[in-house]
Amino acid sequence: MQNQATPQPVKILAILVARPDKADDLAALLGTMVGASRAEPGNLRYDLWRDRADPGRFVLDELYVDETSVAAHRATAHFQHYLSRIGDLADRSVMTLDPREVA
Questions:
Q1: CA dist 83 to 5, 7, 30, 66, 79, Å?
Q2: What pLDDT is attached to residue 102?
Q3: Per the database record, which ranges form the ABM domain (predicted)?
Q4: Radius of gyration of the chain (CA)
Q5: Is 67 exposed, middle or buried (CB count within 10 Å of its CB: 0-12, 13-18, 19+)?
């Protein structure tokens, strides 16, 4: 019998900075992602944060069961809609993280 690797959770942090005069549109788009993403079977966390010092800067804090769940998220209609609009609304920096010492 082959030894199968245990699936590892995947953390994604996305930092989004609104383009000039686009903060409200960005907030609205990101708001549509929360409920739909949280409802996905492999999603463990999907939190939206807004920077106190810069109300045009947002952070998405996402956690998925495994890489398969991330792929499923990226294939959803709501994520595809987000991708189609995000470039016009914000500069985006995304980190995909593997666990090291996580409680």
A1: 31, 27, 11, 21, 6
A2: 86
A3: 10-103
A4: 15
A5: middle
Q: Are 93 and 14 in contact (CB under 8 A)?
A: yes
**Helix (H/G/I), strand (E/B), else coil: 9:** coil
Helices (H) and strands (E) in the chain, counts: 3, 4
Chain centroid to CA 16: how far? 10
Query: pLDDT value at position 22?
Result: 98
Beta bridge partners of 69: none
Q: What is the mean pLDDT of each run of 10 residues along the chain (103 residues)?
A: 73 98 98 97 98 98 97 98 98 96 86
Residue 55 CA to residue 65 CA, distance in Å, equals 30
Domains defined along the chain, listed by start:
10-97 (3.30.70.100)
Structure tokens at 70: 């991330």
Residue matched to tokens 């699936």: 7
**How far is 33 from 78, CA to CA, in rounded Å?**
7
